[in-house]
Amino acid sequence: MQAEARRILEAVLDALERSEPIALDQAQRFGGLIGDYRVQFEGEDDLLHCAVARRDGQPITLEEAHRVVEPFFARLPKGIVWCKPADYSVHYYVGHDHFLLCHRQAGYNLPDDGTQPDTTEGEAGRNL
Q1: Which of 28, 37, 50, 74 has its CA 20 to 30 A from that of 64?
Q2: DSSP at 87
Q3: Quick check: 124 and 112 in contact, CB under 8 A?
Q4: Cβ 79 vs Cβ 108: under 8 Å
Q5: pLDDT at 7 > cutoff 60
Q6: Residue 86 and residue 44: Cα distance in Å, rounded?
Q7: Separation of alpha carbons 113 and 70, rounded Å
Q8: What confidence tens digit (pLDDT) does each residue in 11-46 have?
């Protein structure tokens, strides 16, 4: 997992554990650049929203977006993540509790070596 994706994910998980809102006015804390893409999380109450767009402002394909957000959503069952593609961004929605549970379950660690997390164990291991 890229360092920036790891930083964003840990910030989101830490905020969820403390029941803090993930606000757009803290965009730098909950978002960043991952390669050629901008990823931004926000959420209040019980719904988490993630938006991904190209840095260059060009249209983004659904396949591109899925690859970018895989480190964030690969641990979640496919059916609980709602995806809404648009021309210049793709938006993902999921419940806070599901996102937190799937990432913090026992034995799950974020790799430091640039690889993707192991998603083969447990019922939450289905990809987008």
Answers
A1: 28
A2: S
A3: no
A4: no
A5: yes
A6: 22
A7: 16
A8: 999 999 999 999 988 989 999 999 999 999 999 788
E strand residue ranges, 2-128? 31-34, 37-44, 47-54, 82-85, 90-95
Q: Which has the closest alpha carbon to 52: 13, 102, 28, 88? A: 88
DSSP secondary structure code for residue 22 in this structure: B
Cβ(88)–Cβ(57) below 8 Å: yes
Which tokens belong to 91?
């938006």
Question: Do 102 and 124 touch, CB atoms closer than 8 A?
Answer: yes
Q: At what angle do helices 62-73 and 3-17 cross, to 10 degrees?
A: 60
109 falls in which pLDDT band (50, 70, 90)? low
Q: What is the pLDDT of residues 47-95, one digit of tens each?
A: 999 999 999 999 999 999 999 999 999 888 888 999 999 999 999 999 9
Could you tell me the pTM of the whole model?
0.81
